[in-house]
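Re: the 287-residue chain
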Amino acid sequence: MPSSTMQMLAFVLALLGVLGATVATLLPNWKVSADVGSNIMTAISQMQGLWMDCTWYSTGVFSCTLKYSVLALPAYLQTARTTMVLSCMLATLGLCLAALGLKCTHWGGSHRSKGHTAIAAGACFVIAGVLCLVPASWFTNEVITTFLDSKVPQSSKYEPGGAVYVAFVSAGFFLAGGVIFCLSCPRKRNGPLDSGSSHPDKPLRQQVQTANDHKRKQHREQQSQTEPQEQQHKEDVTHQEKLQADEMRPDQHKPEKSQLEQAQQYYSPSRKRLQDAKAVYSFQDYV
């Protein structure tokens, strides 16, 4: 894809082509004849254009006559009129599209939409170049054919004028600018397209974004590797806390001791055991 500098160059070429095609369409010197006469009022130069015929006299008088009748004109002249007007209109449309498709501008939508707009502008310029090249070539061929015809008198022979050369140069500008803009076709990408960005430094920003994505991917891989270890560490800490809590908790879960064990626990040798009351009194005491 061409850079912003190449697109600017193509835009300038197309602009020069529009100006040249417009000037060539309006100029009256598509073919020129120089015939010096003996009279002081004899014309020294005759010019014929697409819209008017002009005559330059030796006295400095310059007069032009418009061609009002369209049907009276030859076919090549009618074709030249139509195609030159269409070329100027189509090239003007291409300039408007090219202004939206330039990378150095902040309007025109996303990167992909700018590319499509640039392609449309390039197509307009190419078609305008062809429309400008066809009448210039046809007109030149008719002038040269008439000039080489021996049956045509010398006073009626013409040569290609400056407007024809301007039309050829303008057609070259159109074709060059159109080819450069047509190379703005966006390439297919593997990653998702950022449809909201239209900054001219988009490739650099994409490289930075790709590097950031790579770093984030590496960070996620490291986290995925350390997560099992952290989980195991948490389980070990939880298990140790449970063990410490069980050791510090009183013996609630132990079975209660029997009364005999309690009696043995609190038994003292200096303390006499109580005898049964029936064993103390004998039978004679009751008699």
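Strands lie at 31-33, 43-48, 52-57, 62-66, 159-160.
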